[in-house]
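Retro notes - structure team

What went well: the batch runner handled both jobs without manual restarts.
What didn't: labels got mixed up in the shared folder, which is why I'm recording both outputs here explicitly, each with its sequence directly above its tokens.

Job 1
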Amino acid sequence: MSDETIWLEGTISIEAALRGKCREVTAVYVQKGNGRRWERRVANLQRLTSQAAVPLQLVDEAFIAERVTGQSHGGVVAAAGPRQFVPLDSLSVGKERPFVVMLDGIEDPFNFGQALRSLYAAGVDGVVVRPRNWFTAAGVVARASAGVSEQMPIAIAETAELAADTFRSLGLRIAATSNQQAVSLYEANLIDPLFLLLGGERRGVTRSFLAQADLILQIPYQQPNFQQSLGVVASAAIVAFEVMRQRAHV
């Protein structure tokens, strides 16, 4: 395999990659076994790999062990190429009320994958990341996101400001989360087309971005003495599902 080979682990991640078609899957390897559960797993993968013209090979345990990083692979791995990203403006074009999120500065691939999982479940149209991102750890991200990372439309932007400029020109409001001069998430109008920046665990959102945002959102707490920020995984879920809730009544 080439130096750019990415190893995906587990049936869920691999099936998502085969369906999502955002990267080339060159081969799928299944550890030899027996029993009905093993036969069902092989049958499902054989159907998908056959449709995608991807070879499926039965291998021994040692082959799998040399290529995995975790214990949740279930005896299935796939060799794949680098992820293909979509044009930035394609995330909103053709959508009635586009909702696009940029994940910036997340320092852990598991958190990145978990955030993607929540955003996808809430119906986000696409995600923006910087050129240096966690797709270099595709196996971890795919497992943490339950395969969502292989199906969510994702685009690249050099900076959050450039992404905001693009989406503002396409008619989206620019939003971010902060506790400074912010409106409660539950009082804001989130029905209009929206581009939301979610900052990472340490750096958060820069002041320069907040200064040019149309909407600054704050997640209210029930505990008045709690002064800490929520992590990006929780923030992503809370905001995205509130957008979903509001739009469900339109």
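Job 2
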Amino acid sequence: MTGEVTIPLLPCRSIDETAEFYRMLGFELTHHQTRPNPYIAMAREDWQLHFFGIDELDPEGNMGTCLVFVPDTGALWESFAAGMRAAHGKLLVSGIPRMTRPRKRANTGNMAGFSVTDPSGNVIRIFPQQEDTERQEPPKSRLGRTLVKAIVLGESKGDAPQAIKILDATLAKSAEEAPATELVEALVYRAELALREGDEPGTAALLERIEAIELSEQDREAVEAALTTAADLARQLADQS
């Protein structure tokens, strides 16, 4: 039998807040009801997400999640990022709601996924339909190898404290040995984790450290995405000051 369709049904604390958030990402509201129960349906091309309202929902404790496989995670991320910047003047990289940037993870083969956490704490995990055949060079330094592990902890397992712990330990011992590009990538991710955990002074110190790193034009091109994330972190930090 073919033609089956599965639609994620996720909790939300406010159907109106949820609809506004997903509209920002390019979704359309296709169904809205308040009685007998709050319920909305959001659609973006062939992609549908449905939500039911729970007034007492705690976004921090919400474990609602789903996997979405798309043809091009990079193009989708750019579209979502443009919507966020149009609505907020920045990319939301910490707190709730937020969005991570595509990163390849050791526990997902060679696929660069990202996640969107909505205002109710639901995590939409987005991956490419096909594994990327272009293999990245393995990290050249201990710090680069630690970053690979930290991303798995912070993104796939949601264990930011442990990701911070192993990054800090390696940064303290091996930062000077790492190539500039790997150091930038590690510090940007560490700054992202710091802001996610509410450590604003730590975030500011890490951003200053990133700015002080000397990069060649080739290096700067290689870490362009990380530097863009650092700029978004700086804007979000300024807004919270």
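One thing worth noting from job 2: The radius of gyration is 19 Å.
We'll revisit the folder naming next retro.
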